[in-house]
Design goal:
The chain is elongated, with a radius of gyration of 24 Å. The two termini are 15 Å apart. It folds into two domains: 7-204, no CATH class; 207-279, Alpha-Beta Plaits (2-Layer Sandwich), CATH 3.30.70. The chain has a four-stranded antiparallel β-sheet with strand order 2-3-1-4. It is α+β, with helices and mostly antiparallel strands. α5 (108-127) runs parallel beside α9 (180-202). The protein has helices at 7-34, 40-52, 56-75, 77-97, 108-127, 136-146, 152-159, 161-170, 180-202, 217-228, 255-268, and strands at 207-214, 233-238, 245-253, 273-279. The chain contains eleven helices and four strands, in the order αααααααααβαββαβ. β2 (233-238) and β3 (245-253) form a beta hairpin. The model has no long low-confidence stretch (mean pLDDT 80).
C-alpha cells in the first residue's frame, strides 16, 4: 500500500487518468457522434452499442476479461494491475464523463482528424507508463514484448483494421451494401493514432548527436559539461585534406540542450567544426529508459 501511494506511482496514475480522459473524449465526442467505425475492442464495443444499445464501457470490460487473463503471464502482474485500472477508468469515462462534454456534429473528416490525434495522444501517454486500456492494446504490447524491433503503432494499425471493415458493413446507409466513407474515416483515425503513438512513445526519447572536430578536445569537453552536464566521447581522427591529426568530440543531448551546447562550443573555439545529427532514440545515463511491453512484477 505504501508503494501504491509513492510519489512515482501517483505520477503514473495521474498520467493514466489524463490518457483515459483523452481517449474517451476523442472516441465518444467525435467518433461515436460521427458514426464511423473505430479500432480495436473500442470499435467492437461501439458496434455492439449500435446493434443493441448496450453500454460501451460495460462492453469493454466484458471483452477485456479473457484477454487480460491470457496476457498476464507474458506482461506481468504490475502491467495487469495498471491495465485493469485503466480499463475500468476508461470504461467509466466513456459512459459517464465524456457525455458531459459538448459533442462535435460537424464535418466527418474533421471529426476523424480530431479523434485520431486526441485518442492517439491518450493511448501514447498510457503506453509510456507500460500500461494499456486493454483490448488489442494487450495483443500489440504482447507482440512488442516478443518482437521489440517492431513499432507498436504499426502493429496496432494492422490489428485494428478488422473492426473498421466490420463497421463499414454495419454502419452502411439504407440500400447500400457497405459504407466506404465510414471505412475511409475509420482508417484515417487508425493511421493518425498510430503515427501519434509512435511519435510520442519513441520520439519522446529522441535527441541530437553532436560531432565536434577540434584541436582542443579538453576545452570542448569542459564547455559541454559546464553548459549541459552531459558527458562526451573523444575520437582520434585524421584530416582528409592535410592529413593532420584531429580529435572529434561526440556528445548526445536532448533537443533543448543542443542549441545551448552549439552556441557555447562556437564561443569557446571559433575553429571547431560541428555536425548535428538527428537521433531517433537515446538511452543510457541522463536519459529516460523507454519501457513498453516489458514484463514487470
Amino acid at each position: 500500500m505504501r508503494n501504491f501511494f509513492s510519489k512515482k506511482n501517483l505520477k503514473v496514475i495521474g498520467i493514466e487518468v489524463i490518457g483515459c480522459m483523452l481517449i474517451a473524449v476523442g472516441i465518444y465526442n467525435f467518433a461515436v457522434m460521427a458514426e464511423f467505425p473505430m479500432t480495436g475492442f473500442t470499435g467492437l464495443a461501439i458496434l455492439i452499442n449500435h446493434l443493441t444499445d448496450f453500454h460501451i464501457g460495460l462492453s469493454l470490460i466484458l471483452l477485456n476479461i479473457p484477454m487480460a487473463i491470457v496476457c498476464y503471464r507474458l506482461l506481468g502482474r504490475r502491467f495487469l494491475l495498471h491495465s485493469i485500472f485503466c480499463i475500468v477508468l476508461y470504461s467509466l469515462m466513456i459512459d459517464y464523463v465524456a457525455p458531459l462534454f459538448p459533442t462535435y456534429h460537424g464535418n466527418r473528416l474533421l471529426a476523424a482528424l480530431a479523434c485520431g490525434v486526441i485518442s492517439g495522444t491518450g493511448f501514447a501517454l498510457i503506453f509510456r507508463q507500460n500500461s494499456s486500456t486493454g483490448g488489442t492494446s494487450f495483443v500489440g504490447l504482447a507482440i512488442t514484448a516478443r518482437f521489440p524491433h517492431l513499432s507498436l503503432g504499426k502493429i496496432l494499425l494492422v490489428i485494428d483494421f478488422i473492426p473498421i471493415v466490420l463497421g463499414g458493413f454495419l454502419f452502411r446507409p439504407a440500400g447500400s451494401m457497405v459504407d466506404i466513407d465510414s471505412m475511409i474515416y475509420g482508417t484515417i483515425v487508425a493511421f493518425l493514432a498510430s503515427v501519434v503513438i509512435d511519435r510520442l512513445i519513441y520520439g519522446a526519447n529522441a535527441g541530437k548527436l553532436l560531432l565536434i572536430v577540434t584541436d582542443d578536445s579538453a576545452l570542448i569537453r569542459r564547455t559541454i559539461e559546464e553548459t549541459s552536464g552531459r558527458g562526451c566521447t573523444i575520437w582520434q581522427a585524421k584530416g582528409g585534406y592535410r592529413g593532420d591529426n584531429r580529435e572529434v568530440v561526440m556528445c548526445a543531448c536532448d533537443n533543448t540542450q543542443m542549441y545551448q551546447v552549439q552556441k557555447a562550443v562556437a564561443a569557446a573555439d571559433e575553429r571547431a567544426f560541428t555536425v548535428v545529427l538527428e537521433s531517433s532514440q537515446v538511452a543510457g545515463e541522463g536519459f529516460r529508459r523507454l519501457v513498453v511491453g516489458e514484463k514487470q512484477g
